[in-house]
Amino acid sequence: MSVSRNREYGGNNLMSSDVPNAKEIVQLLDMVESKSSFESLSQEFRLRFPEPETYFKLTERVVPCQLCSGLSQLLHGSDLLGGASQELRAAYLIYDAFREGRPHENPFLSLFIKLLHPPEQTVLQSATLAKLCSQARWFLSHLLVIPRESSAHQAMLTMTAEEVLAKPLSECEDVCDTSNLQVHLMEKLAELSSVDRIGVSCVVPTLKAGGCPAAPDSPTAQILRRNATVELLTHEAAYRSFAPMFYRIPPPLHVGEETLTWLEPVSDYVDKLKVLMMQRSDCTHLAEFYTALVNMELSLHSMEVVNQLTTATELPAEFIHQYVSNCIATCETIKDRYMQNRLVRLVCVFLSSLIRNRLIDVRELLIEVQAFCIEFSRIKEAASLFRLLKNVD
């Protein structure tokens, strides 16, 4: 069985309270299978459903009425109806439900346009939409275009679906021009967002090997099809469609003047440490600054800060020894060969600057620095630092 989406003008899916019940669907199928004239069919339609405000009235949002949504599902699911006559009666009932208004105001106008002018579709899509014959398209086009008060229109309503389908093809060639209705439809669709115009049916048809809908005509199959249709159209899920999720990004929280700001510890402000430590040189927590600087991730900025601090103030010898040891240990433990060579060059240039400016006592670090230079002697800066140590000695 197959059902297509219920959104003709991009209306919302039916809510659970709007879904027809089993009794209504059975009555609907009885009328679709009836061989009465269209005029009698219209009278029976309103006799069985005497509350137009419940079944036919449109809201300001142009949400399709529940019964016509069920009829639309029957037309979209060509394996749910038992032939061309039933398809024509279903299309007529949708038209008749909104006969008081102008044709272009019918919320199912897009369905009529697709029935009259089937778009190019894939095998699966074409199998789900009813294919009207020339006689049926002639009848439906005249319903939409000819004024309802005209004698020609009234004469058409005295016919049955079988009589319409039995008309000679030569009498059904003058299909009415519906271009004006198509223009109204395009204007209506243009008012909708792209999300409202997109949707895929939640129910797909059962196809035979040749790509045609599986709709056997045996009595047993007809009973099974009718029962399946009643069960299907009484569930809310049959009227839904898969559509793109519209994500609404939550706006950022308003930051007031007295709102506390959460500070994350980052190393982006390492170049500010020199100014901070110079301003707080008399602070009792200065040792904690030195400890944080020693344990900070080795980088060009951190070495520049230490180099500037050594020229601006007298640093504890223990701090310098720990920092140099940390630099050497970092170079020895890094796994990435490229990053290792880069850090070794930076450390060698840093140590050479401290030694040339006599900012550190090289004798305290001589053995450790010499071992470092020998280990990385393949690097030019390390060899230059080793020669500098020899000259100092």
From TrEMBL:
Extract one GO cellular component term from the record: cytoplasm
List where this protein forms a coiled coil. none
InterPro entries for the chain: CNOT11
- List, alphabetically, the Pfam families matched: CNOT11 (PF10155)
The UniProt keyword set, sorted, is: Cytoplasm, Nucleus, RNA-mediated gene silencing, Transcription, Transcription regulation
User: Any idea where this protein resides?
Assistant: Cytoplasm; Nucleus
Family as reported in the entry's similarity comment: Belongs to the CNOT11 family.
The main place the protein resides is: cytoplasm
Kindly state a single biological-process term from the GO annotations of this entry.
regulatory ncRNA-mediated gene silencing
On whether Transcription regulation is a keyword of this UniProt record, the answer is: yes
Q: What is this protein called?
A: CCR4-NOT transcription complex subunit 11
